[in-house]
Amino acid sequence: MTNEMDTETAPVYTKDNPFLSSIVDNRSLNRPGSMKETRHIEVSIAGSDLKYEAGDSLGVFPANDPAAVDELLQVAGLGADEEVTLPRHDEPVPLREALIRCLNIGQQTKKFLQALAGHTSDPAEKRKLDALVQPASRQEMMEFLSQREVVDLLKVFPGVRFTAQQLADQLKRLVPRLYSIASSPWVYPEVVHLTVAVVRYRTNNRDRVGVCSTYLAERASMHRPEVPVFLAKSHFRLPDDPDRDIIMVGPGTGIAPFRAFLQERISLGAKGRNWLFFGDQRQEYDYLYGDEFERYREEGHLNKISLAFSRDQEHKVYVQDRMLEESRTLWEWLQGGAYFYVCGDAHRMAKDVDQALHQIARESGGMTEEEAASHVKLLRKERRYQRDVY
Ligand SMILES: Cc1cc2nc3c(=O)[nH]c(=O)nc-3n(C[C@H](O)[C@H](O)[C@H](O)COP(=O)(O)OP(=O)(O)OC[C@H]3O[C@@H](n4cnc5c(N)ncnc54)[C@H](O)[C@@H]3O)c2cc1C
Ligand SMILES: NC(=O)c1ccc[n+]([C@@H]2O[C@H](COP(=O)([O-])OP(=O)(O)OC[C@H]3O[C@@H](n4cnc5c(N)ncnc54)[C@H](OP(=O)(O)O)[C@@H]3O)[C@@H](O)[C@H]2O)c1
User: Terminus of the chain with fewer CB atoms < 10 Å: N or C?
Assistant: First the structure.
């Protein structure tokens, strides 16, 4: 039976049917001289009927760099207009378009090496590839793959010949990337703000780029409805009770949802106190949205701000160091019912912040290790400790 309400309220635009949004602002958040490249990107969702909430993420379908695709076509000896069929596409797609919009031409897996072995006319190449995919060579294979994209692999093994369709069949789909939304719908109902770290690195003597971050930063046109997006709903949410205090720990791009939280709390006149921990490399160059936060502090909206600029002194100072310096106050806020939020790097930062939280419970809460662990667990269960980490 069809539920009429559901049918009426269901969003038309989803991951399977993304909305073609326009970028309406794209500016650097770092000052000249910074070693980072972080951009503030505004994406218009006007006319989409998409309703976001502070804490949600935006899914973005990127496009590969056409110049990289042209190099791949040339190395593969394939024509741009050769048509390929792709899963979930009703019509054949020209290969160049498929490689730009639909297929991952970046790092590959063992399966691709096996396909290379099956399509090379050179016995020496086949032997090398067969050896590389043996279980005993796993470490070597992983290292080899992590340094190379499709075009590099085709250059290493020039005896490989794929037809257009064979190449398309071997490549995985280009998947969307998520970005934490840095604006509140109460202030910007039709525009979604993002804080994007542009990924660039070098492997195997070649400069590499992150597909989606560089697509947003430099390849997507401004003011043209061409960026496919969808909303990714989250459990990362402000307290229902606006009188509750919140503590937000968001170094680097982890700042994004907290800018949204602050906009929202200020626009709704929430009475709870706001405490922000932010960190990045150098204050002069990397204090993302610094003008806004300093204004919030002066206006009394940001009750406390603790800054950790890691490279402004000889030794590293991180957000968790600032937490520990303020251990007693932080514990008092938590005991008073504050919510504790963490956003940003999952690999190192979020783990270290979690450890600092345990240490604070021990040192300022007078708890044993076991008591601290179960206290933090309880905070999580009560949804007073929430993480949006990646
Ligand atoms: C819930 C969620 C929220 C997120 N929010 C944000 C956000 O607010 N802002 C933000 O910027 N990102 C955010 N991200 C990360 C974002 O989704 C992308 O992963 C990021 O932008 C990189 O995507 P890309 O396409 O540019 O890079 P990709 O093309 O995916 O390349 C990244 C890959 O490059 C390789 N790589 C990167 N650096 C190196 C290196 N130094 N050496 C060797 N290999 C390397 C790694 O294999 C890495 O996985 C979020 C992720 C999630 C899951
Ligand atoms: N797994 C990884 O290798 C990894 C980790 C983080 C980010 N990234 C990627 O790097 C890009 C930029 O990220 P970002 O701009 O969000 O910033 P970021 O690289 O996370 O850095 C923000 C701040 O956090 C500091 N930091 C480093 N290690 C930390 C730790 N263990 N605990 C607390 N703080 C720590 C950094 O200091 P220093 O740089 O001076 O040490 C910097 O001052 C993104 O694309 C992100 O995905 C990758």
Answer: N
